[in-house]
Design brief:
Helix 6 crosses helix 7 (132-141) and helix 11 packs antiparallel against helix 14 (295-321). The chain has helices at residues 20-36, 47-50, 57-74, 91-100, 105-109, 112-122, 132-141, 150-153, 155-164, 178-195, 238-246, 263-275, 278-289, 295-321, 324-353, and strands spanning 6-13, 39-46, 81-85. The protein has 2 domains: 6-103 and 154-214 and 323-353, HUPs (Rossmann fold, 3-Layer(aba) Sandwich), CATH 3.40.50; 235-319, Orthogonal Bundle (Tyrosyl-Transfer RNA Synthetase), CATH 1.10.240.10. By secondary structure, the chain is mostly helical. The structure holds tryptophanyl-5'AMP (TYM).
Length: 358
């Protein structure tokens, strides 16, 4: 009998087109793991998670479709991976209800992503003066009509369910998702210990030996993110993409040999290392070290090398987006397989928790 393969699962929220952060932090790894042929793969679009911020029915539907097209265009193959939409698996919301009985509101309120988003919703600044206690009080005691919804609070429970319902061992994600993954491990351990079972494995990030990447934005600070307005999208055409890169923030240039790099320049080199050949990286690193670097040349190189990756994907995305029948077929098959795996775990979980037939 063939040995059971380790399970890989990951997803992306349906909140817009995919950018280079999503590609290098997640999607390119999905494809590589699939191609290794060693794993049983589940890749999905997290549409329930998208509802935790700015729900918009038309945009949601369009975003699910575009991400599925982007998955397929980047190389995910429905014959090798189960590709599905979160809301096509009704076992997920049921398990979310069950798991939530073992999750504390305190630990949810202390989650970094929750505090960030709640702050934004309530218009509270992220300055260092605001201690975490103050922020929790602000969220609970806020009397304005701005609301932090309960779905946002329980976001990590839902994400844990996505992972645990398939008993995934590896979850390829970017650095920003590590706290959620840590919480998933904690919930898994807690459930197993409470009921004295070995139901859930503790999932780990996966990065082919390196550290999880954080793709920076082009605005000189922070990560590339949909809500930061600093993204390069897989769907950007040549002109748009080049313009964005050429406008990236830089500094006045190194004044002395071997100067330390400022944040915006470090970010450009991070991008260069992701997209360019090692000798190209070396060329520009040497030029920076001896102060002969011209940032215009550096940016041109980065734009060119990004386009080599994104343009072929872009063409395929546009073609697949026009093929509704193909997308529907992929998702029907994906939902069927995802439900088979999810319902087996849910059956065990119900039994363990005492929800049993008479
Ligand atoms: P989301 O939709 O914000 O991001 C999707 C993936 O892209 C990665 N990512 C980045 N990686 C590197 N640099 C960046 N600048 C960057 N921006 C985004 C994220 O780390 C992520 O891997 N909660 C998840 C979606 C989710 C999920 C799951 C993931 C729901 N359930 C179960 C894995 C397993 C999220 O919001 O990702």
């Amino acid at each position: 009998m063939e040995a059971k393969k380790d399970i890989v699962l990951s997803g992306i929220r349906a909140t817009g087109q995919l950018h280079l952060g999503n590609y290098y932090g997640a999607l390119s790894k999905f494809v590589r793991m699939q191609e290794e042929g060693k794993y049983e793969n589940f890749f999905f679009v997290a549409d329930f998670h998208a509802l935790t911020t700015n729900p918009d029915p038309e945009a949601l539907h369009a975003n699910v479709k575009s991400i599925i097209a982007e998955y397929l265009a980047a190389g995910l193959d429905p014959e090798k991976s189960t590709i599905f939409v979160q809301s096509d698996v009704p076992e997920i919301p049921e398990m979310y209800l069950l798991l939530n009985m073992h999750v504390g509101i305190g630990e949810l309120m202390r989650t970094a992503s929750f505090k960030d988003k709640a702050r934004k919703m309530l218009g509270i600044g992220a300055d260092a003066e605001q201690s975490d206690d103050n922020i929790e009080r602000e969220i609970i005691g806020n009397n304005s009509n701005k609301r932090v919804n309960a779905g946002l609070l329980t976001y990590p429970s839902l994400m844990a369910v996505d992972i645990l319902i398939h008993k995934a061992k590896y979850v390829p994600v970017g650095k920003d998702q590590e706290q959620h993954l840590e919480m998933t491990r904690r919930f898994a351990r807690r459930f197993n210990a409470f009921y004295g079972v070995e139901l859930f494995p503790e999932p780990q990030n996966f990065d082919f030996g390196g550290a999880p990447v954080k793709v920076p934005g082009l605005d000189g600070s922070g990560k590339m993110g949909k809500s930061e307005g600093n993204c390069i999208y897989l769907l950007d055409d040549e002109k748009t993409l080049s313009k964005k890169v050429m406008r990236a923030v830089t500094d006045g240039g190194p004044q002395e040999p071997n100067s330390p790099m400022t944040e915006p320049i470090k970010n450009l080199f991070t991008l260069l290392k992701l997209v360019s050949e090692p000798e190209v990286v070396k060329h520009f690193s040497d030029a920076y070290a001896d102060c002969s670097i011209r940032y215009g040349d550096l940016k041109k190189q980065i734009a060119e090398d990004i386009l080599k990756v994104t343009l072929p994907i872009r063409e395929r995305i546009l073609a697949i987006q026009n093929d509704d029948a193909y997308i529907a077929r992929v998702l029907r098959q994906g939902a069927e397989r995802a439900r088979a795996s999810a319902s087996a775990t849910l059956r065990e979980m119900r039994q363990i928790m005492g929800i049993r037939p008479f």
